[in-house]
Amino acid sequence: MPDPQQVSLFRDADPDRDWKLFSTGVQVWIGQTYLRLKRAGYPVMLTAQAPASGLVVVHADHVPVLLCRRRWSAPLTIVAARADRPRQPHADVEIVQNAGSADGNAAFHIQHWPQPGLVARDARRGDAVRTVAFKGTVGEMTPEFAAPEWADALRRQDIEWRCDAVAWGGNAASYQTSWNDYHDIDVVLAMRKDVSHLHVKKPASKLINAWLAGVPAILGPEQAYRELRRSPLDYIEVASAREAGAALARLAAEPLLYRAMVENGLRRGEEVRAEACTRAWAELLFDTIPARRRVPAPLVLAGLGLRSLRCRLRAWRAGGPT
User: Fold this and answer.
1) Sign, CA torsion 171/33/122/270
2) What is d(CA 210, CA 121) in angstroms, rounded to the nearest whole number?
3) Would you list the DSSP string of 225-253?
4) Distance (Å, rounded) from C-alpha 141 to C-alpha 319?
5) Which mean pLDDT values do the consecutive 10-residue runs of the chain (322 residues) have?
6) Cβ–Cβ contacts within 10 Å for residue 232, how many?
7) Whole-model pTM?
């Protein structure tokens, strides 16, 4: 649990300037939510302690910590960000990552925050497909994309395969990635190693970020992507490496299709910007939940998992490793 000095430092962070700090669920769901709401003028507090009263937002992993440290009689309404964890039975309300997991009563869907500090694709690259990238964790990517044969096949088509991936080390780990940078990326490709189900616990982050970056997306079958899909221009769904290769070849051969997907994605991106997520959070926390549960003030975000923030922020700003 962080000391007050660490929490004070986090309050001064900026999601877009300090984007490397927001690579884990705890930092995204608690830290970024606090900062976005605060900057929009909403009366929220960030604390490393169990609050005495009010509505408290906490990551699902830290609900047990909150329960152990709260005063027995403390009148708390616990809102847990479920992330990709199982249902949290000790929370009064849960935030879930796709609409299929929501029930409109105790579980509400709020769109995942987009990648902070996002650098959009350079429009001067035109409609050519020269670089295809995966951005995520190695363990979630289908092994076929990691095989040399995949990169070799693309190279023969004058396409570079860029695997911007890291091994997941938990919420307390530091990650060296370029997940925010799409300036020289022409297509985003993401397919999980298991396509036998729709991964109903996962968010639509890769699609959201691709739209905002102005980059067409080729994606595996997932619940969150399908919930957002309105037309074939939103993304191309594939269920195998062979289908992914065919989709890439089509985008490379049809510049009009490529351009249409970029333009459509930029329009759809307006719906999922950070400002839209901020409004959704504010409506839920300040209107919907209080109206149903008579929540006492204040509204608190409990940063129970931000232990390493201070050293990471200092190192990154100094230009050293994080």
Assistant:
1) positive
2) 9
3) HHHH--STTS-EE-SSHHHHHHHHHHHHH
4) 30
5) 53 86 82 92 89 92 91 90 93 93 91 95 96 90 93 95 74 66 97 91 95 98 96 97 96 97 97 96 94 71 56 46 38
6) 12
7) 0.87
